[in-house]
Design brief:
single chain, alpha/beta, 3-stranded antiparallel β-sheet, 9 helices, 33% helix, globular, ABC_transporter_ATP-bind, membrane, Glutamine transport ATP-binding protein GlnQ, nucleotide-binding, ATP binding
Length: 278
């Protein structure tokens, strides 16, 4: 695919992902799940992602942070295959099963149990087995008592847990979350966070598989600290910082290496915008 170097990226620039944050393991890094090479995505007249070079490994828990319009949701949709690059290249781990949760999950006009079972049935599972797996998933997220209720009558927190049940039942290798707790009250937020952590660590996975790869967008920096092992800071479609979570929140290091990300974090933590965004 021809690259449009006049509007995206710098001609002759090559990706260097060698220094990207990744899990430290004795036998080398885990397998790569996503590999992006100078990816640009144009949505109409808007260049939503610019020259993104990124490599994500199996088992990572990656947070995407940045202001509204920075490209977080676009990047998630690109990873999930809902969008393709306008230029550049993305390689996805073909065997990896994916699930994506949105801020406001779509609920079918049927029972909570059927909202889980129908997806499994459409994927080829026998209906009786799909119903059994759906009941197991609802039990897992604490929704057994509302299994027969119309899913659209559930609270926001219950609907988000139902969306997690649908994902858990499909046994994905990769879980993508777009602001999953943004519209929830604090108690519902804690419930969903707890389930996401258990999901990400592989606790009680249907098949007993290892931890899933988690990529999520969030404006809640406390949530980022609790859930992530790695943080990407995006601004105007570019990934400007890529650090392990502890290093990302170390003020001197972030200020020295990634001043734009430092101003963003400082503004978020102080409840005000960085100076240039006021």
């Amino acid at each position: 695919m021809k690259r449009d170097d006049t509007s995206c990226g710098t001609a002759g620039h090559r990706c260097d992902t060698a220094q990207a944050a990744r899990p430290a393991v004795a036998d080398g890094p885990p397998p790569v799940v996503f590999d992006l090479d100078r990816v640009c995505v144009r949505l109409g007249s808007v260049l939503a992602l610019r020259d993104v070079c990124l490599r994500l490994h199996r088992g990572e828990r990656v947070a995407l942070v940045g202001a509204n319009g920075s490209g977080k949701s676009t990047l998630l949709r690109l990873l999930h295959g809902l969008l393709e690059p306008t230029s550049g290249r993305i390689v996805r781990d073909a065997p990896a099963r994916q699930a994506m949760l949105f801020q406001r999950p779509y609920m079918l006009r049927t029972s909570a149990r059927n909202n889980v079972a129908l997806g499994l049935w459409l994927a080829g599972m026998r209906w009786a087995e799909a119903q059994r797996r759906a009941a197991q998933a609802l039990e897992r997220v604490g929704l057994r008592d509302v299994a027969t209720r119309n899913a659209r009558t559930l609270s926001g927190g219950q609907q988000q847990r139902l969306a997690l049940a649908r994902a858990w039942a499909s046994n994905p290798d990769v879980l993508l979350l777009d602001e999953p707790t943004a519209s929830l009250d604090p108690r519902a937020q804690r419930d969903v966070e707890s389930l996401v952590v258990q999901f990400a660590t592989g606790a009680d996975a249907p098949s007993g598989d290892a931890a899933v790869t988690l990529v999520f967008a969030s404006h809640n920096l406390g949530q980022v600290k609790r859930l992530a092992t790695r943080v990407l800071y995006l601004e105007q479609g570019r990934v400007l910082a890529d650090l392990p979570v502890q290093a990302f929140f170390e003020g001197p290091l972030l200020r020295q290496r990634y001043p734009a990300a430092h101003f963003f974090v400082k503004g978020e933590l102080n409840g005000r915008l960085p100076p240039r965004e006021r």
